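Hi L., both proteins are below.
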Amino acid sequence: MSLAHAVCAQTQRSLRVASLIGRYDANLPRYTSYPTAAQFTPDVGSEDWAAWLAMVPAAEAASLYVHIPFCRTLCWYCACNTRAVNRAETIKSYVDLLIDEARLAQAALGRRQRVSRLHLGGGTPNMVAVDDLDRLFAGLRQAFAFGPEAEIAAELDPSSLTRTWVRAAARNGLNRASLGVQDLSPRVQHAINRFEPFATVARAADWLWDAGVGSLNLDLMYGLPLQTRDDLLTTLDQVTTLRPARIALFGYAHVPWLKPHQRLINEADLPGPDERFAQSQAAAAYLTDAGYQAIGLDHFALPEDSLAIAARTGCLHRNFQGYTTDDAATLIGLGASSVGRTPQGYVQNHAVERDWRAAVAGGRLPVARGLALTPDDRRRAEVIERLMCDFSVRLPEIEQAHGPAPDRFAAALARLAPLVEDGLVVCADGLVSVTDLGRPFVRLVCGAFDTSLAPSAGRHGRMI
């Protein structure tokens, strides 16, 4: 192909993609679960969660998620359940109640359940003082049985991290860490109220490696206010010198109707959908050229990392932390707003910290809402997970595992017809396969199988 023909083909593809974005970009869930948290209701409560925990088999390993809803300062882009706190006593008393909640879960389980994974999220887990961190781990180990092979991970803020904290966490078993970077452009950082030069990130990485934390993940974002492709690529130029095992590249979700502090961001500074798409594609091309394997929609991993291996072998999963190798059927969430899951359904703790504290102090599992899963929910959940992880799913295999869908997915396939016509997906002999062109639109493909999408559309960020 001549250079002129190549340029023409690229121009035509760009025009086609721009047309598809204009037609299909919409507010859609990230599908870290199905049904999504938007469908949880108060009809499921503490008693249901206790009953479901009592049904967890003793021989199965569970996963733990512990939410720390505190930060030194509030980043304006953040959509997490967190708040700025500077009083040590507030965090100390929160840790006390986390330990109490772990005991409540242990009582419902009827044993010290074996745990294969622990994830400390937030917020900023490294806001917890070293003494309180030691107490938290001691309390968790009294309530649950951690094997020597357990993965213990934490989301960390490099700007507030200390070497002393890293050493304490490593002493307690930390072996995987995620550092929040987002973007290193000073202009972008000022627009989102988050300030950390590359030297701060590199220093945090050095501390973690020196302490024996063997796996490093970096979290980046595109679509931030004032951000350009050059900003994102310059950030990648710097952070890839650290050679992290994994990089997550999330699209900023501007949802000020859900997170009022996002109103501090000037919407006129946000890149439009075409620029957001261009940023994501430029970053993906950079990372694959740098030797990273693309994982699902927005993750990248070195080929030897377990996440990349799981993706290549069809063992990748998706949960509320994103793409994962975690195949545990039970997730026990501790802390305000944490989500838990068993095969029977989902629960979510009180998001308002005051309510969570009152429930735990009163000796109750602090569940505010949830959802009991139906057979059709489980069936569609597996379809959506395989699409998000593998970009394809064989519907007959899903029906073999879960029984036929009531309409044998006829309604979903009908909703996919326009996407088939536009070359985003191929449907043949029960195989639904997302094309290379359609991969950025995979959430739209998943939406075709989502029977409860329309009522909750306003709760989600943009797809592109």
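That was the first. Here is the second:
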Amino acid sequence: MSLEVTDLVVDIDGRRVIDGVSFAVPDGARVGLIGESGSGKSLTALAILGLLPDGAEAGGSVRWNGRELIGMPDRELAQLRGDEIGIVFQEPRTALNPIRTIGRQIAESVRIHEGLSRTQARARAIAEASRVALPDPERIVARYPHQLSGGQRQRAAIAMALACRPRLLIADEPTTALDVTIQSEILELMLSLVEDDGMSLVFITHDLAVLSQIATDGVVLEHGRVVEAAPIATLLTAPSSPVTQGLLRDATATLWRPGGVR
């Protein structure tokens, strides 16, 4: 299955915030959307899934496995979300329901899409918690989000997104709120799960160093427009746009240096 975004536009209260964005994610590919805050990368992801805020309207084309998603009724989109397309949000504290146990939240999509019983769904939740390396999964599925650390909450969010084995995962800055050590662990986990399941990946970030660890190709956005699209190796060694050059300077100002691209 493949994702094709063509001339995507998003208007919010009459103001154009995404202007002609196009990119493709072939089956099994790992593509990054990168740009500074306000560049439109997260809005692009929300438009793909039909999750734009009130007052926003999308145009252009978003095709998933040949099916047009722009204008698709929400009931049909809801069948795709979590089943064929999963999403991991930036801040799991707000993405997770504070009054539901972790296990119930992991199991929710499989109960909806696969029709599992409550007992079967709990067993599945434990298995998924184990798969994302949550400690003592049988106990942790009975806990609430506030009882988990930030890294554990993000692992739970990943388990929720992948429980139905979607063919595409959209990860919207999933490591931004984590410290460097936990960030690295989450990136390694996500990459291994994507590779194991043969999923396609759209990874959203403002950090070229992070993107180099998980994606093979990058699409650079500024003010809602694509300013450069190239393999990650090219973005790291020969960026053509001033925006990408600035992102590279920011990345090399850390302990990270170009090289070792997957």
